[in-house]
Amino acid sequence: MASNSPVILLGERDEIQPRPRGKTNTSPGKFGLMLFTLMTFAFLYVPIIVLIAFSFNSARSGAMWQGFTLNWYERMFSNTRIIESAGTSLIVALLSTIGAVVIGTLTAVAMERFQFRGRALWDGLLYMPVIIPEIVAGISLLLFFAFVQIERGLFTLVVSHIAFSMPFVYLTVRARLADFDRSIEEAAQDLGANEWRTFTRITLPLLMPGVVSGALLAFTLSLDDFMISFFVNGKGWQTLPVYIWGQIRKGVTPEINAISTLMLVFSIALVVLSQLLQRREKKRE
Amino acid sequence: MIAAIRRSRAIQVFGLMLPGSFWLIVFFLIPLLMMGVISFMSRDKLGFPAQPWTLDNYRSIVRDIRFAPSISFDDGLQLRMFEGLYLELFWRSVWLSLTSTIITLLIAFPVALFMARLPMHRRNTALILLMIPFWTNFLVRTYALQFMLRGNGPINILLRSIGLEALDLLFTPGAVMLGLVYGNLPFMILPLYTSLEKFDWTMLEAAADLGANLLRSFVRVMLPLVAPGLVAGAILTFVPSIGSYITVELMGGGRTNMIGYSIAQQFSASANWPFGSALSLVMMIIVTIAAVFYFRSGRGERAELV
């Protein structure tokens, strides 16, 4: 997850509190901090930017600049294995997001709204997939599918992706459930709505921002995953990161730079989308 | 009447919990349990689990451990009391993960601090700038770093063009460490930032008014309040580090072996599933120790992880 478990808030940030203005705006300490922050961001961004730049380099190998080309992008789009694995990644992400959102939301409602025996145990267990190293999760799933003799492919990819992303949806939705006003639900019931009606008309719409953040989280986690897909993918059903891994191990080609750039653009689009959703949500509140 | 309500509640809970618990049990707990069982089996000719039951897998992990105190300066100062192939593997993994976690923390804290003190609109920009590497595929980012440091990569070309000699930057423990820090930095900055953003800065002024110096007010006032974010970031860095596979392969070229990488090898090239399972279980124990530490110190603030 934890490929590195890329775990975190898409939408559930807390309200930012106003704070008193500091008077030390131009102190050397603050300047030092700024410089350090800029350097850190440069450290994070330089390799990515260089990679993008070299995806337009016409040199076949090495990092000598030999002129601008779109050749690698053309090749990428005419490579059926790339298109296929990108398709697999999207299908797996879509299906596993739907599964994870439904299951995670139901679990969140049960855990937050009901008292029952074994609740504390489940509370701990639902955290486990977040904490167990991905490589262990991936290998144990490989052992499991081998033992029950399920052929590895689309099915194993989707159920495994649901297994590791569901807890994140659960946590996001539960956080949203924990801090909303229950008196609205009580009001609805006082006005004669039954439990089901209250849930679909009041609870679910109020829960929606949490569900949407959870969905985006699950979708991104699924697209990002390499380690678990690496162990549970099967012939004809390879995700894009698994394909890229195979190519990288064969040696660097400018084509990989082009695929990486495209994946990067896709994640930037997702970040922007989540920020827009979050802003709209804030305005509404 | 009350009994009927109770029964219907029980049915509701059962229905709501059914899919989640099914998934958790079937696709998480049972596979882990199976791994535990396999770790007590022998291997057949192809490396798959076979009868009879045995403790050999665990024995061969601890077999060659012997008492041999030594000091070495290879990867920095290291004091050792014991020696052994797998002991060294575990020791190196824990040491590299721990050191890289601490370095990541030392870099991330000032950055998170600076971001949390920015005016509102700049803070949002900075946050988006942080989110982009955060959400970019880990494999792609590690590959980008490796590309930079290659023998014929941009850095070496730059060095050569200004008349310096090219450097061997990859395939060393230092390169693995750099890869871990680079890969995990966003996962450390974000939880720290979320904690620091909630921090009430007037508290520091209050501490100063009460006579605390800067260090004291940092340790006694700020640190306890940002501890949840700090521990969350540390866990999000340490656990993936110890199980890391991509970084070990791309930055270390498989030469600086770590436990996660070694486990993966048992399931591919030099197949020995039972032994790989035993190694995984030992790694789980290490991670569980780290997790217990997390739950102890972060109680009540657990949502911080997400």
For this entry, give a set of tags.
heterodimer; A: 285 residues; mainly alpha; MetI-like fold; 2 domains; 72% helix; B: 306 residues; two-stranded antiparallel sheet; 4 strands; 70% helix; 7% strand; disordered C terminus
Describe the 3D structure.
The complex is a heterodimer of chains A (285) and B (306). With 285 residues, chain A is mostly helical. Chain A folds into 2 domains: 28-59, no CATH class; 80-284, MetI-like (MetI-like fold, Orthogonal Bundle). In chain A, 72% of the residues lie in helices and 0% in strands. Chain A has 12 helices and no strands. Chain A has helices at 28-54, 71-78, 80-113, 119-125, 128-131, 134-147, 154-178, 183-190, 195-224, 227-232, 240-250, 254-284. Chain A is globular, with a radius of gyration of 23 Å. Mean pLDDT of chain A is 84; it is low at 1-24. Chain B has 306 residues and is mainly α. Chain B has a single domain (39-305), classed as MetI-like fold, CATH 1.10.3720.10. Chain B contains 12 helices and 4 strands, in the order αββαββαααααααααα. In chain B, strands 1-2 form a two-stranded antiparallel sheet. Chain B has a two-stranded antiparallel sheet with strand order 3-4. In chain B, strand 3 and strand 4 form a beta hairpin. In chain B, helix 11 runs antiparallel to helix 12 (273-297). Chain B is globular. Mean pLDDT of chain B is 83; it is low at 299-306.
- The name of the CATH superfamily of the largest domain in chain A reads MetI-like
Multimeric status of the protein: heterodimer
Mean pLDDT figure of chain B: 83
- Strand residue percentage of chain A: under 5%
Largest sheet of chain B: 2 strands, antiparallel
CATH names the topology of the largest domain in chain A as MetI-like fold
The parts of chain A where pLDDT drops under 50 for at least 5 residues are 1-24
* CATH class designation of the largest domain in chain A: Mainly Alpha
Question: How many separate domains make up the residues of chain A?
Answer: 2
Order of helices and strands of chain A: HHHHHHHHHHHH
Mean pLDDT of chain A: 84
Greatest interface (CB-CB under 8 A), with counts per chain? A-B, 104 and 95 residues
Helix content of chain A: over 70%
Top-tier CATH class of chain B: Mainly Alpha
Global structural class of chain B: mainly alpha
Q: Shape of chain A from CA axes?
A: globular
Gyration radius of chain A, in Å:
23 Å
| Biggest sheet overview of chain A | none
Helix content of chain B: over 70%
Number of strands of chain B: 4
